Amino acid sequence: MVSKSSSNIGKKLWPVFRLCEEKDLPAVMELDGEAFFDPWSRDTWQRELQNRIAVWIVAELDNQIAGYAGIWNVAGEAQVMRVAVKKTLRNQGLGLLLTKELINKAWESGAEAVTLEVRESNIAAQTVYERCGFVSKGVRPDYYEDTHEGAVIMWLYR
Fold first, then answer.
1. Residue 1 in domain
2. Which pLDDT score, from 0 to 100, does residue 14 have?
3. Domain for residue 14, yes or no?
């Protein structure tokens, strides 16, 4: 029997994926602050949870938020808004599983394509996206406010 517990870290992660809820916001916001230079406010998160074009999911391990991800689906295209995994759980496959689940949500919501931007220096994330089938289609120069780094534009088609 396979255990769905984070006590298996180092062996195999078995997260539970579900839609993000208001009760998750404290943990999501803490993770957002850990993962991004520009963490979102509670008001922004509350608007996102009520946004009809948005789908936000969380990954739970041992009943704790281990990661989150979200898309906006407009006119048949899903735009990845954010993907984050707790620092202590990175490089163990959770980002890949979370991204695959997010892609499934995009297809379920009617998207025919998924797009995202990722920092040029974030090779780990680019590798995850490539493993999910995304292809680089160019770079937006000077995209990120904090470092003026370019963003790699990636696409995945159904």
1. no
2. 87
3. yes
